[in-house]
Structure formats: C-alpha cells, structure tokens
Amino acid sequence: MDIFQIMEIEDEETRVQKIYEVFHEDTRLNHSKAARVEFLTTVRVIEEYVKPGDRILDVGAGAGEYSLYFARKGYRVSALELADSNIRAFRAKLTPEDAIGLVQGNALDLSRYEEASFDAVLLFGPLYHLGKTEEQLRCIAQAKRVCKPGGKLFFAFISNDFVILTEFRRHPDYFTDGDYDKETFRLQDFPFVFHTVDACRALLREGGIRILREVASDGASEFLEEKINALDDAGFEQYLRYHFYICEKPELLGMSNHLLFVGEA
After folding, report:
1. 3-state class of 138 per DSSP?
2. What would the pLDDT profile of 88-98 be if each residue is shown by its tens digit?
C-alpha cells in the first residue's frame, strides 16, 4: 500500500498502523549524527526535570528509543504504543534487564493507568496524528490525569513552517508544486499533523497546560543533514553546543522540523 492509498483510510487507528509500515520509526532517531540531534536535545531537557527512580510514562513510544534510554538510567518506565511495526521493533530491543511495562494501546485512552501515578509523561507521537482538536485535547487530558501534581508533561509537535524548507531542499519544484496552501503556507495534515509555534501554544493552553519551556528540538539538523553527518566527532560536539545555544531562542523556534514543549497542569 502506498502513501496515497493510506490517505484514503478513514479509521484513524488503521491509518496510523499503515503509516508506520511505510515510515520506519525504528531508525528515525539513531541512523546518523543529524538524526541524533532531536533525541539528544530532548533527553537533555527531560533530565533537567526528573531524577532516577521517578516513574515515566512514554505515550506513543514508537520503537522505544526514549523508554529504553530512561529505563537503563534507573527510571521506572511504562510505555504505550499503537502501531504493530513499532511494537515489534521495540520488543526486539528489549533485554531481560529492561524492566519496561510495554503495552499496545491508544493515547486517547490511558484508563489502564492510575490517576496521578507518573512523575513525567512523554507525548512524542500522538499529536503527530490526531487531526481533530477535540481528540488532541482528549489526549492532553488523559496525560494530565495520570501525571502527579507537580509532575511534568513533555509534548512533541511537527513544525509546519520549517518542513516547507526541508521539502524544498529535497524537491526543487516544491514551492510551485508542493502540497501546501500557496497563500497561507499551511501544509496538508498528511501523513502527519503539522503545527505552527503559535498553534502549539494555543492548543496546550486550551488543554490547561502551563508552558514552562519551548524548544526547537532538531533545529536545522534535517535541513543540513549532509553537512552535519560529514563532521568528525569533535565538529559534531561543537555543532551540538551551537544547537543547544540557539534552540530556545524565541526568534528561532519555528526554524525546526520538531518542537518540544515542557509543561505542567
């Protein structure tokens, strides 16, 4: 099944399943230096708010990159993922020492978890796929319910504005032929749902989230992937230092393919 056939699927769960048969989440965050920037930035931010022994719920856990990292650092991790292909990839990485409660499920229903039972809740996938505002708000409400008072919630979004430039780098005719509104520069929400920085803020505030941090989690790394991947280790470390220096500057937030928001209820 190709991407255009997937677009015609009306059932949301089935559509997500098919998307991850085409897009391989298993290697997205680790296949190169440039791909690693998002993961390294996100982990760096999360670790400022949690301590080993804390309970973390990874909702939309993908192939387990974050769950495995934190479980192996001494955190108590529960993970929920919808897509069969991601579940298989996640389970293939687990060792007997990895005490992760991995289950298959939907971010719109976290009833299996007790209220106020996690110190941190990660939502690093669900808001890529929920196109209806009421579903996005329900997802946020579910995360809030299971987060402890004073606990932190971490939300990832795909940035509408910079994806246009990334696509232009790959497709020279994108500005004339690309699948976006030529007047508003709004991307079509497929295969993922795209948000501007302002739309992220508005959604989280409507969901009762107090925003603590806003981060351009991968910045220009996908746009500059060939140059970044060609760096030696010392050059890459210096690039990361530069990225960390600019990734929370308000004037540069939108210049990123992925956005990270830290909040609390």
Report:
1. helix
2. 999 999 999 99
Are 24 and 207 spatial neighbours (Cβ–Cβ below 8 Å)?
no
Alpha carbons 28 and 36: distance in angstroms, whole number: 8
What residues have CB less than 8 Å from 189, skipping those under 6 apart? 131
Q: Which residues of 200-231 are buried (b: 16+ CB within 10 A; e: fewer)?
A: bbebbeebebeeeebbbbbbbbbbebeebeee
Element (H, E) at 150: strand 147-159
DSSP, res 38: H
| Of residues 245, 244, 219, 205, the one with CA closest to residue 161 | 219
ω into 191 cis (within 30 of 0): yes
Is residue 241 within 8 A of residue 191, CB to CB? The reply is no
- Give the confidence band of 34 by pLDDT, cuts at 50, 70, 90: very high
pTM, full prediction: 0.94
